[in-house]
Amino acid sequence: MPILGLRNSTTKSYSRVHTILVDNDFSSTTSFTGTNATVGVSGGKLVITDSGSGGGYASRSFITHIGTVYSYSIDYTDDNPGNGTMKFGTSANDNSLKNVNLAAEGTFTGTFTATSKGTHITILVTGAGRTLKFDNLLVQENN
């Protein structure tokens, strides 16, 4: 049987592009849903108001790849900051991947590593009847 002398002498390189999973400036609508809280958009901001007992939250899910590192950024723009927590986990209101105390106004950034094909971001209002406001949420895959 003849042996073919085929050879590939070219080398190709590929670069990965950041995959943006969530990019929301809250200019018109939101994909967050509320549990014991009302969720909406006002003045270009995500507004979450606890229904009265504390512990109300807004959450949404997005597709992730197991073992991949993701970065996040969100602006906490509340007039009276505090009484909030942002969580990343495998279900709504779960903090198994990341738990961020929103104690002061500002931009919060960080990373988490996905452990399932679906990840949830939850923003919890810890103060009874409180309203929290956010802007410029970005979640993206790291290279």
How would you characterize the overall build of this protein?
This protein has 143 residues and is mostly beta strands. The protein has one domain: Sandwich (Jelly Rolls). It has no helices and eleven strands. Strands 1, 3, 4, 6, 9 and 11 form a six-stranded antiparallel sheet that branches. A five-stranded antiparallel sheet has the order 2-5-10-7-8, with no helix packed on it. It is elongated.
Task: Provide the fold topology.
Blueprint lengths: L19 E5 L8 E3 L1 E6 L2 E6 L5 E8 L5 E8 L7 E6 L8 E4 L4 E8 L4 E8 L5 E11 L2
Antiparallel strand pairs: 1-11, 2-5, 3-4, 4-11, 5-10, 6-9, 6-11, 7-8, 7-10
Short recap of the structure:
This protein has 143 residues and is mainly beta. It has strands at residues 20-24, 33-35, 37-42, 45-50, 56-63, 69-76, 84-89, 98-101, 106-113, 118-125, 131-141.
Relevant terms:
Jelly Rolls, 143 residues, elongated, six-stranded antiparallel beta sheet, five-stranded antiparallel beta sheet, mainly beta, 0% helix
Strand content: over 45%
Number of strands: 11
Q: How confident is the prediction overall: mean pLDDT? A: 87
> What is the count of DSSP helices, taking H or I runs of 4+ residues?
0
Shape: elongated
CATH architecture: Sandwich
CATH homologous superfamily caption: Galactose-binding domain-like
Name the helix and strand elements from N-terminus to C-terminus, one letter apiece: EEEEEEEEEEE
How is the biggest beta sheet arranged?
Answer: 6 strands, antiparallel
The total number of structural domains is 1
